[in-house]
Amino acid sequence: MTVATTLSGALTPTDDCEWIIEEAGYDPLREGSRGSRFAISNGFLGVRGARAIHRGGRWVGASRTLVAGLFDTADEEHAIPGLIAAPNWLQVRILRDGVPLTHREGDGKSQHRILDLRRGLLLTDARLSNADVVWVRLRSLHLASLSHRAIGLQLIQMEFERGEAEITLNASLEVSDTSLLPERVEQGLGVWNTTSSGKRLAMATTLTLRIDGVDIDPTSSSPLQWSWRWTSHPGQVVCLARTVAVTCGVAGEVHPGQDAVGALDVARKLGWSDVVAAHETAWTKRWHCSDVEIEGDAAAQRALRFALYHLNGAANPDDEHVSIAARALTGDDYRGHVFWDTEIYLLPFFTLTWPLAARALLMYRFHTLDGARAKAAELGWRGALYAWESADTGAETCPLHVIGPDRKLVEVKCGRQEQHISADIAYAVWQYWQATGDDGFMRDAGAEILMETARFWSSRARPEPDGHCHVRSVIGPDEYHESIDDNSFTNVMARCNIRRALDVVEWLRARWPEQWGSLAARLALSDAELGQWRTVAETIMTGFDPKTGLFEQFAGFFSLDDVDLSRYAGRSVPIDVVLGPEQTRQCQIVKQADVVALLALLPDEFPGDTGAKNFGYYAPRCAHGSSLSLAMHGVVAARLGETEAALDYFRRTSAIDLEDNHAAIDGGVHIAALGGIWSMVVFGFAGLALHADHLTLNPRIPAAWQSLRFGLQWRGRYLKIKIEHATASLEVTLDVGEPMTLVVNGKVFALSREQPLWVLTNFSSR
Ligand code: IFM
């Protein structure tokens, strides 16, 4: 891949529509969703994709910047922390004789917003004018550097096409969030403190303006504002380059001002073209490790690249104290809180394409263990119950009430009852370890997460006279049904959590006896307690009926009213809005994959044809009231050989953020659904399954896909996989690492660097 070195080169998008998301025109009603879709992010800095110019004399680039971990609590009475907006570092205003330049009335089409997925940046291209006296073509570039995460870059090029006039360009850095209180403001540097969370944020910035190749000093400036004035003429080219360095930390522990100035210095020495070059090189590396190529279906290819773009931009392998929020750093929905979305929908992607990022995300859960211990203790249990919604400390941040669609106050019970989160985190810890062989992580951090979550479940599941342990009054993934008993997803995941913890006890005892000794002593883990864990795992109620082969989603689910959801096809609002929450509760209507999610995550729990039976039962009863749902169904449908149905789930998941038919995209992209897009391809169509000492593949790709290619990292190896329709073949090459075993459609093969694998396979779908 080539790297742009001239400004025109930098402003020119990749010439390949499969790497480009482009929209023209302006529609104020769609501006919110575009802000999310066109957001740029590097896992530390996220900037919403506002358009380059506003009519009516507002600022150019009135965008919103979010910084990972910059939480504050606005209101002490209902103290729910949320991410706050960092100062807007992109503000620019261009005026002729004091009147702003805007795009011409009716000329919306000349405005283009282009997300260059390959290069990881946002470009705009628009024509502005003022009373028809001055015409300008304005092109811009914004990036959040993937190579130097503290750095943001803005480039603006104006080519004057008509008119001689006095032009003023104002650039500034504007604080919009009242939570930020100034500590220090000096030329090109601001340091702020948050009102209540004890965070400090610094931004250092440098700007240059060049007219026809000559740098021009500002006509005036104050600490965070710069102004230039000049006379334009046709053919004149004016370039603004602004670099910002952002740092953030806990007051008293960091010197963000100093760090920001240091980071800015590095970027200044590089110059904007090398900042762009280093950023593009970092993106090239990410694409090398994570790209998925589909031949024969351009829409699917674009959807995948869009998903991979946002996934790669969401993580920061260098920060173990932040995780990825439900909307990543692309919007304010859920206030930047972290859910099970990260471990179940995102971790597989990171574990298999970017293990360092996966590790940092799991370390966030390690560092927030104390919050999880406190929550368990507060509710009367032992061990660690992770926050359903987590911010920076691990304390529960789920609101107790929200306003419902009918504007009435609705109680939110998820913070207390949606407890499967602890088992989900344990699942991700195990999966990461199994896929990477990172023993150091398991020994020093993962084991403690597994022990404390297993301890939670062993205190939470109570033995009852029927000989089973029961977990009463929970919410499963299907949030339409609250205060239910023995949710099969929760209980089977909990059992898996306990069993994997016991496996790790054996492993530690054998391999790291000293570390086991000190961990057991620190957590006061006795053999008697481990014995009790075993009993809980053996007796926990799962809801599985061997006679029917069905899991009952929770105790009493099968006695609820059975509703034919197809009667409500075409509805434009969620089913609980159509029926009302009370009636929905009385029905076998599932909000999102629940038993189906269990089938996707733990297929071995579904012997023989019970996977197909459960999918056949639950899929028609699912209302997909959450963006997380369709992808889980897609994974399972693809694995069951229902390839074209799986493709339909894939397309519907892709539409959530790419098409404006989903009500809630204004608040940020649905990063879990985007992770699900990758999972559908890798775990679904390619049929990948991870095992302790080998991988299995059972590929079946949709008829429209000529081929599918992707790469994987597994236990220090890098594998490339190609599935081709015309030859009905699977090709696997091992680029890096030791020989290994692959099982394809049940047959065992040896794979080494010298000996790639090429096998005929059967793609027949149902
Ligand atoms: O975690 C999800 C939950 O499963 C459904 N509601 C939205 C949350 C955040 O994405």
TrEMBL record:
Keywords: Glycosyltransferase, Transferase. It holds the Pfam family Glyco_hydro_65m. One of its GO terms (molecular function) is carbohydrate binding. GO terms for biological process: carbohydrate metabolic process. It comes from the Bacteria. Residues 23-247 form the Glycoside hydrolase family 65 N-terminal domain. Residues 305-678 form the Glycoside hydrolase family 65 central catalytic domain. Residues 690-751 form the Glycoside hydrolase family 65 C-terminal domain. InterPro entries: 6-hairpin_glycosidase_sf, 6hp_glycosidase-like_sf, Gal_mutarotase_sf_dom, GH65_N, Glyco_hydro_65_C, Glyco_hydro_65_M, Glyco_hydro_65_N, Malt_Pase/Glycosyl_Hdrlase. Substrate binds at residues 340-341, 591-592. The active site is at residue 479. The keyword Plastid does not apply. Belongs to the glycosyl hydrolase 65 family. This is Maltose phosphorylase / Trehalose phosphorylase. It comes from Caballeronia sordidicola. The lineage of its organism: Bacteria, Pseudomonadati, Pseudomonadota, Betaproteobacteria, Burkholderiales.
